[in-house]
């Protein structure tokens, strides 16, 4: 039966007696651990660049700086977990270390050295849990993005269906979209807002899908009654879209696309 590969520990400790205490404790445990020891932050960064460890133990105060300088991101974003050690700990220091990105914190003593394998195991479990949660969130975001793309594609198809039923305004939604996007780009709007504007433009007449085709394709002038019926299409489009979860206020844009700055227009007056 093959033995599990050794985990790599990078120990950053400038006190030889403390480094030796960690080594002895790990050797006496059932943990298969390769220990690389350095004594400064500069040596730590060099060792990480050469071969990142599975976990690092950093003394808080080192000859060329403090361990917190090596903590540059939250633990879930770090390439490996970091445990900070100190000889003179207090609650304020512990909080600072954890806020800086340490996965754990301990005060050096014969007792904590004797339990170092448990500290390392706990830190690895916590870090692995953070990594799994991040991967799960990424998978969820990818699924949501695919669903969002499916919804927007379906809505765009509905918009094309409207144009197919309304030959006199065929291409109107696309032309309106191109104009709106050109103005938005000229104004320097963020790309995400422009994408929302693009979708809204492509489907702004969606409510016409509920209009009788006889009215949409009528070659002569509409009667007042027919025109009043056509003017309900913003409200109809809003009704179709208001419960669809999108990252942009598309339903409101559809509702308001016949409104005017001076308060005229329709359907709101």
Brief characterization of the structure:
This protein is an alpha/beta fold. It has 11 helices and 7 strands. Helix content is 54%, strand content 11%.
Description of the structure:
- The model has no long low-confidence stretch (mean pLDDT 88).
- Strands 2-1-3-6-7 form a five-stranded parallel beta sheet, with helices on both faces. The protein has a two-stranded antiparallel ribbon with strand order 4-5.
- The chain is of the alpha/beta class and 269 residues long.
- The protein is rod-shaped and about 95 Å long.
- The protein has eleven helices and seven strands.
Structural class: alpha/beta
Low-confidence stretches: none
Distance between the termini: 80 Å
Report the principal-axis shape. Answer: rod-shaped
Strand portion, in percent? 5-15%
Number of DSSP-assigned strands: 7
Determine the fraction of residues in helical runs and give it as a percent range: 40-55%
- The spatial strand order of the largest sheet comes to 2-1-3-6-7
**Radius of gyration over alpha carbons?**
32 Å
| Average of pLDDT | 88
Largest sheet: 5 strands, parallel
Helices and strands in order:
Blueprint: E1 7-12, H1 16-28, E2 33-38, H2 41-50, E3 55-59, E4 61-62, E5 65-66, E6 82-86, H3 91-100, E7 104-107, H4 110-114, H5 116-165, H6 172-187, H7 191-203, H8 213-216, H9 224-230, H10 233-241, H11 250-256
Parallel strand pairs: 1-2, 1-3, 3-6, 6-7
Antiparallel strand pairs: 4-5
Helix pairs in contact: 6-7, 7-11, 10-11
């Amino acid at each position: 039966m093959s033995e599990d590969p050794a985990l790599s520990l990078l120990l950053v400790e400038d006190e030889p007696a403390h480094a030796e205490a960690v080594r002895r404790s790990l050797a006496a445990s059932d943990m298969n651990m390769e220990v690389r020891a350095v004594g400064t932050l500069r040596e730590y960064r060099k060792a990480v660049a050469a071969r990142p460890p599975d976990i690092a133990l950093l003394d808080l105060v080192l000859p060329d700086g403090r361990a917190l300088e090596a903590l540059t991101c939250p633990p879930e974003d770090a390439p490996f977990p970091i445990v900070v050690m100190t000889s003179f700990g207090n609650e304020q220091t512990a909080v600072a270390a954890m806020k800086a990105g340490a996965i754990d914190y301990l005060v050096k003593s014969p007792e904590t050295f004797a339990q170092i394998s448990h500290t390392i195991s706990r830190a690895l479990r916590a870090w692995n849990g953070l990594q799994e949660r991040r991967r799960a969130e990424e998978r969820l975001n990818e699924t949501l993005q695919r669903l969002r793309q499916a919804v927007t594609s379906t809505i765009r198809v509905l918009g094309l269906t409207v144009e197919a039923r309304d030959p006199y305004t065929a291409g109107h939604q696309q032309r309106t979209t191109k104009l709106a996007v050109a103005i938005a780009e000229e104004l320097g709007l963020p790309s995400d807002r422009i994408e929302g504007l693009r979708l809204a433009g492509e489907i702004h007449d969606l409510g016409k899908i509920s209009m009788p085709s006889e009215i949409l394709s009528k070659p002569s002038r509409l009667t007042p009654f027919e025109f009043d019926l056509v003017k309900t299409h913003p409200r109809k489009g809003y009704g179709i879209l208001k419960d669809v979860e999108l990252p942009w206020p598309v339903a409101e844009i559809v509702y308001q696309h016949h409104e005017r700055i001076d308060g005229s227009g329709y359907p709101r007056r």
